[in-house]
Specification:
This protein folds into 2 domains: 116 residues, no CATH class; 83 residues, Low-density Lipoprotein Receptor (Irregular). The protein is 24% helix and 15% strand. It has 5 helices and 11 strands. It is globular and about 60 Å long. This is Lipoprotein receptor.
Length: 241
């Protein structure tokens, strides 16, 4: 059986990896975040799966149970390292906006070529790759300035990726309004600002406002969020003991 999930910034169809509750994952088909935004902003039918529907646990080869969210993420969580092997991860196709390590794991693109190894095999810091990657990033920024997927109220243009991303790219801020973003449904692994924009969860409660309305730094929310994060890390430490 296959189900649609949203991971990080894109949608993918999950049909291979066996979990403790009987679920399995294999061929994955991804859609870019821009395509996802076009669908949701145009009010087309898009089905999202809630976080509670995602398989809870993965059984390591040594019998240890870890959260299914921690497999093939570039970080070793099984004591026998079986959650980050080529055998396990090679069948995964990472979403468009996420980097695929040589052995198959998926990591956030913001971690690429930052001087710190985030893929177990170090493929995110490969020198020839990083040299070309920096050239490509420069070219992307040049293209973004030329694209006009969305015409701002002030007359300037922005690309689809810049709409409802927490940053006001239009001079008048019309790409980051509640009227523009309210119909956008964020994937479960992204945070939804109160007015509707989607931002990476790593930006939450970091002391810097990333949602235009500041909802990612709301004090009551952040207090509860830090408690939840602490609980997750305690679980990870317990799994490694």
């Amino acid at each position: 059986m296959c189900k649609m999930y949203f991971l990080l910034t894109a949608a993918f169809l999950v049909c291979k990896i066996t979990f403790s509750n009987g679920w399995s994952i294999s061929g994955l088909h991804s859609d870019s975040s821009a395509e996802f935004k076009r669908e949701t902003l145009n009010n087309q039918n898009t089905t999202t799966v809630q976080e509670e529907d995602i398989p809870d646990n993965y059984t390591c080869k040594n019998g240890e149970l870890i959260s299914a969210l921690f497999i093939c993420d570039g970080e070793i969580n099984c004591k026998d390292k079986s959650d980050e092997t080529h055998e396990l991860c090679s069948g995964i196709v990472c979403p468009f906006s996420v980097f695929r390590c040589t052995y198959g794991a998926c990591i956030y693109r913001y971690k690429l070529c930052d001087g710190k190894q985030d893929c177990i095999d170090g493929s995110d810091e490969d020198y020839p790759f990083c040299s070309q990657y920096r050239k490509n990033i420069s070219a992307i920024f040049r293209r973004k300035r030329q694209n006009c997927d969305f015409k701002c109220g002030s007359g300037d243009c922005v690309s689809m990726e810049q709409i409802c991303d927490g940053v006001a790219d239009c001079q008048d801020g019309s790409d980051e309004t509640k009227a523009q973003c309210d119909n956008l449904r964020c994937p479960p692994f992204l945070f939804r600002c109160t007015y509707g924009a989607c931002i990476y969860r790593y930006k939450l409660c970091d002391g810097k406002q990333d949602c235009i309305d500041g909802s990612d730094e709301d004090y009551p929310f952040c207090s509860e969020y830090r408690k939840n994060i602490s609980a997750i890390f305690r679980q990870k430490r317990h799994n490694c003991e």
